[in-house]
Amino acid sequence: MVNKRGLLTFASNPVIASTGVTVGPLEMKKSPFSKYADKNYDDERCGLKTNEQGHAKMMEDACMIALSKLDKTPSDAEFVLMGDLVNEMTPSNFAASTIGIPYLGMFSACATSVSSLLMAALLTESGMAELVVAGSSSQHNAIERQFRYPVQYGSQKGATAQWTVSAAGVATIIPHIEGAPIITCGTIGIVTDLGLTDPLNMGAAMAPAAADTFKRHLEGHGSTVEDYDLIMTGDLGKIGFELFKTLLDRWEYDVSSVFRDAGAEYYGKHPEFLAGASGSGCSASAYFTEVYDKLLSGTYKRVLLIATGSLMSPLSYQQGDTIPCIAHAVEIQMK
Amino acid sequence: MLSIFITSFIVGGLICVIGQLMMDVGKLTPAHTLCTLVVAGSILDGFGLYEPLIDFAGTGATIPITSFGNALTHGALAEAEKHGIIGVLTGMFEVTSSGISAAIIFGFVASLVFKSKGTI
Amino acid sequence: MAIRKILLLVFILVLLTGCSTSVGFKTVNTTDIDEQQAETLLKEDKRIKNAVMLIHDDRLIAGLRVNTFERFSKRKIAKELSKELKKMYPDLKITVSADSKVLLETNKLIEQENEQNYVKQMKKISALVKEET
Amino acid sequence: MDEKKYQQLEQQITPKPKYLKNCIAAFLVGGFICFIGQFVALFYISYFDFTERTASNPTVATMIFISMLLTGFGYYKKIAQVGGAGSAVPITGFGNAMISAAIEHRSEGYVLGVGGNMFKLAGSVILYGVFSAFVVALIKTVLVGLGVVSW
Question: pTM score, two decimals?
Answer without folding.
Answer: 0.90
